[in-house]
Design goal:
Elements lengths: L1 H29 L13 H12 L9 E5 L5 H8 L7 E9 L6 E8 L5 H11 L12 E7 L2 E7 L4 H15 L6 E4 L8 H4 L11
Antiparallel strand pairs: 1-2, 2-3, 3-5, 4-5, 4-6
Length: 208
Amino acid sequence: MKKSVQIIIGVVVVIAIIAAIVVAIIFSSNGSDGKTSLPEVSSLEDLHELIEKIYEPVDIGELMIDTIDVNLTDANSVKSFTGLEDGNSFEYLCVSEPIIGSIPYSFVIGKVKEGVNANELAKQMSESIDQRKWICVTANDLYATSSGEYVFLVMGGQSSAEIAKSAYDSFKNLAQKVGKEYEKSISDEEIPNDTEEAPVFQVPTTEQ
C-alpha cells in the first residue's frame, strides 16, 4: 500500500514538473509573462516617458521627430500606424514619426489590454503594416517584438535604417526580456516601380 502511494506521488510530481516547464516555455515564447523590466505604464504620459528613455541612447542626428497619441477609436489611424483593423487590443498606443512626411521612419509602442497576447499582436503588426505607406519612399527594414504587456514595432528606410535598429536595440535593452522577434527587410529591387507600370494617359484629338 505504501509503495503504491509513493508511486502515485512520484507520478504527480513528475506531471507537475512537466506542466511547469511547458507553461514556462509558452510564456517565454510569447513575451507575456509580466517579467519585463520596462517601467509600469498607467497613462499616456507614462508611455511618452518610456519613449524618451528608449530614445536616450539613440542618435537621431538631424531627424525631427514628433510623438503622437493614437486615437484608438479611429480605425483609419490605427491601421495606418499598426496595420491592424482596429485598436481594441490596446490600452495605450503612441507613434513617433518624422515631422517631414517624406522620410520613411515609424516607431510604434503600445500597452495591450489584459488578456491580450502582446507577442501575437506584434506578429500581426509586422505582417500587416504597410512599409510603403509613404507612397514615394519605403521603410526597407522592420523590427517588431513584445515584452510583458508591451508591443513594439519600428521600421526605417535607407536614411533612417540605423536609427530604427538602434531604437529597437534600446527597447530590448530596457526590457531585458522580450518575446519572439519579427524582422522584415525589403531590398530596392523588390520594390515595384509604380511609375513604370502606370498607364500613359493620352488626350483625345478632334478631327478637323
